Amino acid sequence: MKKRSLHPGTWLFPLPVALVSCGNMNTYNIITISWTGTICSDPPMCYISVRPERYSHQLLMDNPEFVINLANAPLTFASDWCGVKSGRDVNKFKDLKLTPMKAETLNCPIILESPINIECKITEVKKLGSHDMFIAKVTNVQVSDNLFADGAVVPNLKNAELISYLKTVYLSQGEQLGRSGFSIKK
Amino acid sequence: MKKRSLHPGTWLFPLPVALVSCGNMNTYNIITISWTGTICSDPPMCYISVRPERYSHQLLMDNPEFVINLANAPLTFASDWCGVKSGRDVNKFKDLKLTPMKAETLNCPIILESPINIECKITEVKKLGSHDMFIAKVTNVQVSDNLFADGAVVPNLKNAELISYLKTVYLSQGEQLGRSGFSIKK
Question: Does B186 fall in a domain?
Fold first, then answer.
């Protein structure tokens, strides 16, 4: 098994596709983020890393809140477009016909069309280099009603058909290979 | 489009499946990690979040280095098993017949069988609650030779058949929906 070494770089994939909404209910934007993840289970905490020159960076500094709206297949075009266009030039919600609905715990919109909306309050901004990391607590999670089976109180994430990002390409949801814990099931 | 609110929780998926190797070349372990991500492009930086009670936590404190070994489909069983078993009780490399090869820039093993090995040096440990976040710089990346097309100097990640994790299930690589930037291509 031969290996080659690459220059140090960003090779941790596949990643969720996060349409991050930020700002307030008057001035808001969407920015597609790859550098995001969960950093703690209890309390539930997430981060997003954003370049200081991005339009959304100032919105995040002005109102320290954001929503991670996960992208499903129908949001693939929006995900790509919100990653290359700037909120300085376009109104992304309007141009993409997406619905800004006030988050339950924030003064900032969720994207109604996204199946999962993770509402976050920023607790710290960490300067790292090209990116600033916004560390946040999860304050609420909204989930589309159609992810719940009849009578279920926990949504089935597979119904969301979430997409992922593999450095240069967007991928659909793959096939199930096993359930968590299958390796020790009798 | 009706929504339901859930208790604040960890709903950011799908995620890469990271078999993290740590320790030194005498005492080492593998721990499967979901809470991982890239936090900065330049310099390239990653994190992993680990519960203090985990065996690997002490190894990370003793030698502040680790390797993120990405899991492909043949490593699905190992990924699950290394997430539920403790290195206090078993020798994971030996029991799974995985090969610990010294990292190029660390005194810690990579998992040779993983297609992508991201070598990291820890720069900071941040206590958050249930998890400590280990913030790190990427010092080298090793990639299996078979990911490179003839004459290519950049690997094609799609050839790695990386798996992902969706809260309770492991998923195979999905189908390509579009290339980065497709929304503004003429």
Answer: no
Q: Searching chain A, which residue's CA lies closest to the CA of residue B136?
A: A128
Strand pairing of A164-166 and A169-171? antiparallel
CB–CB of A162/A70 below 8 Å?
yes
Across the interface, of B6, B140, B168, the residue whose CB is closest to A5 is B140
How many independent structural domains does chain A possess? Answer: 1
Is the CB of A11 less than 8 angstroms away from the CB of B118?
yes
Q: Which residue of B has its CA nearest to A182?
A: B80
DSSP state of B153: S
Instruction: Evaluate whether residue A3 is within a structural domain.
Output: no
pLDDT in tens, B93-137: 999 999 999 999 999 999 999 999 999 999 999 999 999 999 999
Mean pLDDT for B20-32 is 98
Nearest to B180 among A104, A129, A169 (CB): A169
Q: What pTM, to 2 d.p., does this model score?
A: 0.98
> Domain limits at A87?
15-173
Angle at B14 between CA A119 and CA A163, to 5 degrees: 95
CATH number for the domain harbouring residue B117? 2.30.110.10
Q: How far is B152 from chain A (nearest CA, A)?
A: 12
Closest CB to A177: pick one of B6, B73, B177.
B73
Segments of chain A scoring below 70 in pLDDT = none
* Whether A81 and B12 lie within 8 Å, measured CB to CB: no
pLDDT reported for residue B8: 96
Contact B16 A15 (CB under 8 A): yes
Task: Indicate if the pLDDT at residue B186 is higher than 90.
Answer: no
- What is the spatial distance between Cα A18 and Cα A68, in angstroms, rounded to a whole number? 6
Mean pLDDT of the B23-52 span: 98
In a domain, B20, yes or no: yes
For chain B, percent of residues with pLDDT exceeding 70: 100
Q: What whole-number distance in Å separates Cα of residue A173 and Cα of residue B172?
A: 8
Within 10 angstroms of residue B161's Cβ, the number of other Cβ atoms is 15
In a domain, A126, yes or no: yes
